[in-house]
From TrEMBL:
Listed name of the protein: Glycerophosphoryl diester phosphodiesterase
Residues covered by the GP-PDE domain: 34-285
Organism listed in the record: Alkalibacterium olivapovliticus
Cited Gene3D superfamilies: Phosphatidylinositol (PI) phosphodiesterase (3.20.20.190)
Any single biological process term in GO: lipid metabolic process
Gene Ontology molecular-function annotations: phosphoric diester hydrolase activity
Pfam families with a match to the protein in the record: GDPD
InterPro entries listed in its UniProt record: GP_PDE_dom, PLC-like_Pdiesterase_TIM-brl
Amino acid sequence: MSIKRKGRLFGVFVLLTLSLKWTPFDQPTLPADFLLIAHRGASAYAPEHTLPSYQLAYDLEADYIEIDLQQTQDDVLVAFHDETIERTTNGTGAVSDYTYEELKALDAGSWFNEAFPEQKQFQEEGIVRLEDIVDEFGKEVKYYIETKQPFTDGQLEGQLVQLLEEYGLLENVAVTRQVILQSFSEESLLTLHGLDPDIPLIHLYHFKKEPAELSADEFDRLASYASGIGVNQSALTRAFGDQAAEWELDLHVYTINTYSEAIDAYKKGADGVFTDNLLEFIDPLDNEL
Ligand code: G3P
Ligand code: CA
């Protein structure tokens, strides 16, 4: 797949023309294997974590769709970022205080319509289960899933791996990389590694004190279970990228919403970026008009 890439559906362009930006050809380009990870789906154009957001990410040929994972009161795995539901639904309180049936009844789309009135508007979008997403896309997409609630004594991780196995997404996963799992929690990553050591794992860091820095011992330790590191964009340096390469770790950077920022991350050693804004990475001239 080439970058800038060809969108799967011209209709997507008709839908999103107003958002389109295009990087001139004389700028440096990203290599074809540079990963574009659709952060919460194509979340610049549709309410995050909803099926339309993931459908758009698929249409725009993201390499991975990113899903934050939480567990409901009745132990259902749902795609949801925040611990509480105020920001993106018409409800209040913690995700873990509600059953899935209760969450499903909430409106998870209107906030987007109000925040982004210039974008396509979405009606009756609800919170979805991880199962709904893998049921919809199967092996048509690759999944980059974050455990957000690692305080469930391994229950969330166990359920997650079981579900992925049931859908055949872990067959030969070390080679296919059909699924990548990520977490800020070492405990969660170690649990996942214990459940299936073949699953590629990304240890996420948010370096508040910049620049990003880890000791040799810390690199040794994380390289014993993880295949890569996820790091906040503002903390990334070339020195850190060189260290990640020395330990043969993938380096993915969040959250990058312009092509030039992705180029900058690439020059510092990144292998991929999380982005809300997939249209930044598509060449309109590749699309049939
Ligand atoms: O998973 C990478 C990035 O998404 C981490 O930040 O807060 O958007 O989950 P957050
Ligand atoms: Ca995330």
